[in-house]
Amino acid sequence: MIGSREHALSVVVPVYRGADTLDALVAELAPLTTAFRTPAGRTARVAEVLLVHDCGPDDSDVVIRRLAAAHDWVRPVWLSRNFGQHAATLAGMASSGGDWVATLDEDGQHDPAYLGPMLDRAMADRADVVYAAPVNPAPHGAFRNVSSRWAKRTLRWLTGNRDAGSFHSYRLVLGEVARSVAAYAGPGAYLDVALGWVARRITTCPVRLRSEGERASGYRLRTLLSHYWHSVLTGGTRLLRAVSVLGLLFATIGFALAVVLMWMRLRHSIHPAGWTSLAVVGLISSGTILLALGVIAEYVGVAVHMAMGRPLYLIVGDSQEGPLGADEEEPLPVEEPEPS
User: Fold this and answer.
1) Which of the listed ranges 126-130, 210-214, 221-225 does the model predict with the highest average pLDDT?
2) CA atoms within 13 A on the CB side of 202
3) Which stretches are annotated as coiled coil (predicted)?
């Protein structure tokens, strides 16, 4: 039997270029701020919508202030500078107070109507995290969609995280898990990897993605590759172990080759022309060593960033209401002198 408890949802939206899309997204969320029934009959309500301003190039801050003034359930979260989508999402999670935290993109690609089914899936599977599982191709190019599927599959193998293939920016997270992850995740921790460290169970829910409209994706190939590589580095030490195994394999081959060469030398069967193969072996070995050192250096770099204590994000007040906004206030009227 389904209980009568009302589930309070906090919706976190990282905002970078949302001046043209936030109004429509908030309008879609407005009906969900009153109690509604999920498909399974549970009672839920969007208690707050946190718009995290990530200091983008457009007038998103103006739109956020207007929406916050019009709706008491819209809460702005102001960041001191641009920190990126994952950091902005963690900042919103840290500022949330709901039983569940849902993360949506600002571009309208994620349909809020699936919040109910995602909650039902979380309750049915007793899961801490529910990722959206798109039933249709993402509204990107064919090359990017294929690359994304390949990246998730390889990420699962390279990190040993069986849920890596389910990572998606449309997610529903148990509130206490989301806030705990936001509290301890440092600059070296990838959001979804960090969730996997503490989540008891992770599941997925089928959703249909919508078009991004006329707005092009802000992620370029370089950014996507950076996210992928960072996920590999923070996902565990499996890659480092693979490099160690590779080094052991080449060391074994080298030892066996040395024995063969010594035997051939004793039989006087080595001629000067054979030194070319030694040069090739030397190049392969040095290349393997450099590759291993490069991977180790990447891990050291992640550890250094975490040890330095560099903040992942910094929440500040609305700049319009602080000293920086003082010059933008309307000037006080100048009193005209009375005629004598």
Assistant:
1) 126-130
2) 21
3) none
User: Using one digit for the tens of pLDDT, what is the confidence trace for 94-111?
Assistant: 999 999 999 999 999 999
Q: Answer for the pair 10, 112: CB distance below 8 angstroms, yes or no.
A: no
Tens of pLDDT along 254-265?
667 766 766 766
Residue 319 in any domain: the answer is no
- Distance, in Å, from the CA atom of 338 to the CA atom of 340, rounded to the nearest integer, reads 6
Per the structure, the complete domain to which residue 15 belongs is given by: 8-218
| Residue 154 counted as domain residue | yes
Q: Which residues contact 294 (CB under 8 A, 6 or more apart)?
A: none
* E strand intervals along 67-223: 74-79, 100-103, 129-134, 171-174, 202-207
Q: 74 pairs with which residues across the strands?
A: 49
Q: Do 206 and 254 lie in a common domain?
A: no
Q: Are 101 and 173 in contact (CB under 8 A)?
A: yes
**201 lies in the same domain as 55:** yes
